[in-house]
Amino acid sequence: MSATIFPTNVTIYDPEKCWNGYTVFQASMQRAKDVGAVLIDMNGNIVNQWKGLDGFPNKILPGGYVMGSTGIRNPEYGFQDMLDLVQVDWDGNVVWSFNQYEQIKDPGHKKKWMARQHHDYQRQGNTVGYYAPDTAPMIDKGNTLILCHKNLKNPRISEKPLVDDTFIEITWDGRIIWEWICSDHFDEMGFSEEAKNAMARNPAVKPAGGGVGDWMHINSMSTLGPNKWFDQGDERFHPDNIIWDGRQTNIIAIISKDTGKIVWQVGPDYIATAALRRLGQIIGQHHAHMIPRGLPGEGNILVFDNGGWAGYGAPNPGSPTGVDYALRDYSRVLEFDPTTLEIVWQYTPTEAGYRIPYYASRFYSGHISSAQRMPNGNTLITEGSQCRVFEVTPKHEIVWEYISPYQSPTARSNMIYRAYRLPYHWIPQVEKPEEKAIPRLDNNKFRVPGSLRKKPLKVTRFQKAQKAIYEVQHCVIAKDVD
User: Fold this and answer.
1) Is position 395 within any domain?
2) Which domain holds residue 293?
3) SS3 (DSSP) at 279
4) For residues 23 and 15, what is the distance between their CA atoms, to the nearest angstrom?
5) What is the dihedral of CA 223, 227, 233, 235, to 10 degrees?
6) Number of domains the chain is built from
7) How many angstroms separate the CA atoms of 225 and 128, rounded?
8) What's the predicted TM-score (pTM) here?
9) Rounded to whole angstroms, what are the CA distances from 349 to 54, 98, 376, 443, 470?
10) In what order do the strands lie in the sheet with 286-290?
11) DSSP string computed for 148-194
């Protein structure tokens, strides 16, 4: 947001065109303990709030349960490590928890077990963590797939210590039965020599623990689930296989659950084939997943292509070191066919009504953010760094918009990592709320009370002359010139 003061809460709502339900999100990316996880209705009213429950992300399960974490590791020693992953009931009571991935002794702290979970997790029964017909996550049994961190060294990547990404699968009682380590598959990822050189010098080093390379930065991970591609005989899309995306490398990939090997990938560069060039360079993306069966677009890949800064490559004017060498100052939401890479649907500044490149940054979140496909074909988009969640129709009409009012106590920021829409019947504790339309405001007429002038200001002869000179100099009298 460029304005320092702007309206918050729900600003647009068309009940007839929305897929109506509740929306859950973590109210402060700065971990404000007095806010926590928030569940709102379509009019922005708070339905429930779980104070102190961090969300990386928060997800609602049927029956009014919510998942998240009750603590985060001291950032001086750990980068984005959550202490535990928990499931709490409607009243905030912990009914399930996991922290037994690694035992850590940080300076000045007692030794303790940590989950080191970050960015994503999936409960068995549902592939992507959001509502899809006939695929509800389990609430009192089942395995959980968790995205975690592990510190290690891998000289093929860099001599510097790394904070690597791992996937683990745990049983309901917390036993780890499967693990996948990202850096083990470095040679499968197709990095250029320029990229390898840049990464070796600086694998996206973060200051935690004296400096660790967050070389890949995976931010989403989910199973594919049943899909038409596998039904047609394409083994790459086995329902148990796992799709993930690496923000720092611009990679989206699918691994075999059986072998751990990469069986499908786009990135890190998008120029090798005509299909990749049509798809366009994806930069710093979040929440790449396969749209689940039963939803419009099922089988396609949906991703929030952030833009911003990411990737490794040859040094260039925007990146003298070759780190974060790909740059773009606007975002895209892409839905594409994973077999042809054809874009099936998109939401970019063009669809938002902003001229590229002049006003493209008006739809822009350089980090965090997500996209969810809903049963009526609408898409819920989290423009995270702009504290905005909005719902658009297949024809790109905004039919619901929410601006978070929860500002961090330590930074002037209302960021939202990821929001999810869920059906009313998943929350039996309350009755379905009344849905009241909120028409779009006319910005030409909207004013803060007390800010209207009763009389127009006088324009002096000098001001008129200045205006005439400006118009001649900038050719605005004749026509609009690019």
Assistant:
1) yes
2) 9-452
3) helix
4) 15
5) -10
6) 1
7) 9
8) 0.93
9) 31, 41, 23, 19, 29
10) 286-290, 301-305, 332-336, 343-347
11) EEEEEEETTTEEEEEEEEEEEEE-TT--EEEEEEGGGGGGGS---HH
Is 480 a member of any domain? no
Tens-digit pLDDT profile for residues 219-269: 999 999 999 999 999 999 999 999 999 999 999 999 999 999 999 999 999
Contact 331, 306 (CB under 8 A): yes
Q: What is the pLDDT of residue 446?
A: 87
What is the length of the chain?
Answer: 482
Cα four-point dihedral sign 148, 99, 177, 59: negative
Own/partner contacts of 107-113, CB < 8 Å, gap of 24 or more, are 107/77, 109/74, 109/77, 112/83
Ramachandran quadrant class, 385 (left: phi over 0; alpha: psi -120 to 50; beta: rest):
alpha
Closest CA to 420 of 131, 134, 27: 131
Per residue in 8-25, pLDDT (tens digit) is 999 999 999 999 999 999
We report the CATH number of the domain holding residue 261 as: 2.120.10.30
Helix or strand (DSSP H, E) at 309 = strand 308-312
Residue type (1 letter), 176: I
8 exposure class (CB count in 10 Å sphere: 0-12, 13-18, 19+)? middle
The two tokens of residue 112 are 């303790």
Give the residues across from 176 on adjacent strands: 170
Q: Is position 458 within any domain?
A: no
Q: Is residue 218 part of a domain?
A: yes
